[in-house]
Structures are given as structure tokens and as C-alpha cells.
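Subject: Interface between my chains keeps coming out wrong

I've been trying for a while to get a sensible model of this assembly. When I model each chain on its own everything looks fine, but I need the whole thing in one frame so I can look at the contacts. Pasting all components below, labels as-is. Any help appreciated, I'm running out of ideas.
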Amino acid sequence: MKERFLHHELILILDFGSQYTQLIARRVREQGVYCEIHPFHLSAEEIAAKNPKGVILSGGPSSVTDEDAPRVKQDFYDKVMAPILGICYGMQMIAIDLGGRNEPAARREYGHAKLKVLSGGTKLFNELPFELDVWMSHGDHVTQVPDGFRKTATTGDVITAFENDERGIYCVQFHPEVSHTPLGKEVLRNFLFKVCECSGDWTPASFIKDEIEAIRNVVGETDNVVCGLSGGVDSTVAATLVHEAIGDRQTCIFVNNGLLRANEFEDTLLMYKENLHLNVRGVDASEDFYTVLKGVVDPELKRKAIGGKFIDIFDAEATKIGGVKWLVQGTLYPDVIESVSLRGTSVTIKSHHNVGGLPEKMNLKLIEPLRELFKDEVRAIGRDLGVPEKMIERHPFPGPGLGVRILGDITPEKVELLQKADKIFIEELQSSGLYKDVWQAFAVLLPIQSVGVMGDFRTYEKTVALRAVTSTDGMTADWARLPHDFLARVSSRITSEVRGVNRVVYDISSKPPSTIEWE
Ligand code: XMP
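Reply #2:
Try treating it as a single job with all components included. I did that and got this:
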């Protein structure tokens, strides 16, 4: 399944560890140009083999003067024939490598700056105003450009852009990829279309067409394929795409682990069959999951128990189909980018690999039709494929489901109670138009009881916490500032409609230091 976009224009992004590298990729793709992120040490031969229309060198946290600073390979500038754009750290490295000078600034420049484009004309700032608001984040700055290069923009007395048009090397100190550089998109656009002469041929429709062809080629005429559906947007879009390619030779399996939202299993199964015409089997294994979860309290053990049981059920169901050689997975691009870790390896905070080990256990080859895509691109593809909007706009939902939203041990009664409270919260978010404003929202059942009063009676019942966050990728998040009147309505509905709950609290913690889920 590799190299399937070779007939598309490609921009290569070499990653030097910037927090913005994925943002550069998204900005490039928004212009209809396919791009890939690779580690900074990709060799000139590997770059040439990909035949890129242009190469972008990202920013990064290092200083080029550090002894162990990440650098491109020595022969990079001689062997790479495509135009190059260096951003921030990328610019400083180019300056040093080609004989210019770079020095630590007296103070780190971070934030807004005004850039002045110098006279003399440059493709990068073509048709842009002579003054631009830009976003800076750097400790070093270039004090002398290499021989043969000329300055094209400054902020005060700092060199903010320089280039050698003949060699096709362009450098900017600011970050064109961030929204704080309002015309940054135009700068990138100029690089893509004026410098690299891209045509912008990468669209959802062209992606779907290529992908269908690629799936047909790789699966062949007779192999059978199996796909696990979770009810989320990624697996749904992946399955729909594969269905377009090979029809009912793909069998989808949708397992009810007893930890889904209220009516989720029935409603989603119907949608898979009626709207998307998928060849899908629904397996209600709730009881099996409750059995293995009995008495399990530790969050990681719950995850392991749920993941392990899922593999068993899925494997048993897939075995019934026969002749299955392939497994479809909705893996996305952020999961496959080889991330550059310049600060040591990161620690696993929670194990998110719910079904890791499935392909090995079942001895299946993988089809991952979305592995080059970001989430918003998956949504665009899904829309083109006719996936209902309600599914496309869905909040993320964790594999272990309500299992990590019931603190303490799990019982069917607790699941039912949480489903009712959660349903009220989601219904109210939808009917008040707030659902789209939050990134994820859900209810959590706490393992405590507290005193309340109902009519003439004292109660001693359970507490439900409501969690709603804003985020762009789930890595960081803030609690959503939902209107007080809205929260009051949800709270009053839950305490009056869900028997066994006498208290509702709203979680006002951001991530970090908290996480989005409570377990
Ligand atoms: P946390 O709680 O780590 O969650 O801030 C970040 C995002 O990941 C989801 N999440 C999971 N997804 N399996 C999943 O498939 C898991 O075990 C899991 N734990 C958390 C969470 O819902 C949020 O979107």
C-alpha cells in the first residue's frame, strides 16, 4: 500500500522537532498539495527517490550552535534539486551550512512582529503587502546571509527572510503556518505555486479515486477482507472506502461491548446497513465483557480486560467468514508520522492501544486506507462518500467506552445509570446547538455517595460528573465554558430523571494537569 501517491505532486517536510510541523503539513494540504513529514536525517537519495516538487525544513527547539543540533546530511544542498523553504530553525541551519552567520539574540523573540518586505521583488511575498504581521519564536538570529543570497525582509534590524532564487532556496524566520501570521497561508501558497509550480491536484475526489484503485490492486480478485467498526468516524470512513472498492467481499464486525452509549449499538448498526449498505455483522457480547470486568477496579487492568476480550470475540467472528486475508484499520496520519524526539523518549500516560496485537494474532495483512490523512481530511472524504453528517461530526469516543467513565468496578446497573445521564447531557448539547462547540463531552459516574433531600426524604445516592472540553487534537484541552443556565437544565434533568443520582458536578480542570477521561 506504499507509494500510492507517486503520480501526485509531493512536498516533503523534514521535521526538526517543531511543535508546528504537523500544522505546516495541514496548511500545505489545504492548498490541494499532498505532503509528507519525514525525520530531518532522511538521506539525499531517499529524498530524490520520492521526487518531491519542494522540500520544507521545519522549525525546531534546538539552537544550530548546539553541538548535537539536528542537521540535514552533508550532501543535502548539492543533491536535492527541488526548491527548499527553511522555516525558523530550518532557516538558521541553512544560513550556517552555506556560509552565513547565526548568533544568539540578546533576548528570545516570541510573539507578534511587523515584517517589512524589501524592494527587489521575491516570489515568496508576491502580491502581498510590504508590511506583514508575523509570528516569531526564536532564540538565535541570522546576522549575515550566505554568499549569493539576498535579504528579502526584515523586522527592525533583524533579517527575517532571505533567498537565492537561482538555487531555489528560500528562508523565513517567522512561522507562516500558524494562525497568528494572518497572511502566512499566502506565503506558503506562493512557495507551492510560484516557486515549486505545483498545480494543486490533490482533492478528496482524487484521493477516493486513487485509493479505490489501490485497494483493488492490493486485495486482488478473490481475497476476503474483515473490518472492525467502532461506531466512530475513522473506522466508518475506512470501511465505506473499502466497500466502494470491493463491495461485500469486506465483512464488517461491530461488537457491542456493553460499554457503548445509550442505543448506540442498535442505531449505529442500522445506519451501517441502511445508509452505507455495508456488509456488517453486529455481535452483542455485553455479557462476556461484564464477566471479565467483574470486580476490576484499576483503570489499566480494565483497558487490558476490554482489549483482550475484544480480540477474542473479533477473532472468533472473523474465523466464521473464511478466506480472510486482510484487516482494515482506520489508522490516521498522526499515528504513523515518525516523530522526531529531541528530548528523549516520551512516556506513555495511558495505554490507548486497545486492540494492539490483533493483526498478529489473526495472521492478517493490514489495509489502512486513511494512514496518510489528518482527521479533518477524513471528515472531508467521509462527506464525499455520503457518510451521514451526524456520524462525521461525532465527538471522539474511547475504545474502552463507558468502562473508563465508571470509576471503580463495572456492573450492568451502573452502565445503565450512566447511559441515562450521558444521554441527557448529549441531547441537551445537541438541541441547544452547543454540541459542535465542544470537542468532547460526556458524563462520568463517581464511586461516591452523598446526602441529598427529595420531598420529605433524606437520600444517600450517587454523583455524576459532567465533562466538556475544547481542544484541537486531544493532546491538550480546556474545560468548556458552557452557559450556567444550560448546566442548570442538565443537572435538574439528570437528578429528576435518573433514579439513583442526587448530585451533579461540572469538571473545571484543563489538560494538563488533568486528562480528558477520568481514568
Ligand atoms: P486523555 O484522557 O488521555 O484522552 O486526555 C485523550 C483522548 O483519548 C481518548 N482516550 C482513549 N481512546 N482508548 C481510546 O481509543 C483509550 O483507552 C482511551 N483513553 C482515552 C479520550 O477519549 C480523548 O479523546
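Reply #3:
Confirming on my end. Residues 1-5, 343-348 have pLDDT under 50 and may be disordered.
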